Amino acid sequence: MKVALISATRNSLQPIERAFEKHAPEIEYVHLLDSSLLNMMERDGLLTKEMLDRFIDLFRLAIKSKVDVIQLTCSAFNDAVDVLRTIFQVPIFRSDQAMLDKALEYKKIGLVSTVKETPVALSNYLTRQRPNVELLSKVDDGALHLLSKGKKKEHDSRVLSMVKDIQHQVDVIVLSQYSMEHVADEIDCKTPILTAAKETVLHLKSLS
């Protein structure tokens, strides 16, 4: 199997690479990155035609690379998948699809995010799958950029603070973005923690 990984931030690359190395080293993958997309989303606050056009360009490159699957790695853009599936025949997966499907096994789901647009995309998916799902969202908007500035310790501390705030109010905690994958190792609580990169790779492995 060959997978195209479509990313909007470099912070997504290392987590998914580590997940492949640990859980499915046999799967071949290629990266396609457009780092301007996240800035556009933060500027406009919603998915625009300009952003969709850029995704279409990335997907065309992926097809030319003869991939079997296209996998998004940035949760803020997951709502684009419904449109892109009408254009391309290759299987396309949201960045969080495998993780959220697993989260739906629980009654009350906690969403921890560092980009304000992310929980909107996640909530849309979860409520479509189960309209009566109970959601509790915590967002520290902009914390993602701390990683790009080399402030990993501050980023991780802010994520851990959100987890602490909701851990006793939910049945499962979703670390919404690939950029938070590494923080899972630092969390010490009884509430189950789900991360996107790990669940994504396990899902892709099941298809290969």
From TrEMBL:
GO MF terms, alphabetically ordered: amino-acid racemase activity
Domain of life: Bacteria
UniProt name for this protein: Asp/Glu/Hydantoin racemase
Organism in which the protein naturally occurs: Siminovitchia terrae (Bacillus terrae)
Classification lineage: Bacteria, Bacillati, Bacillota, Bacilli, Bacillales
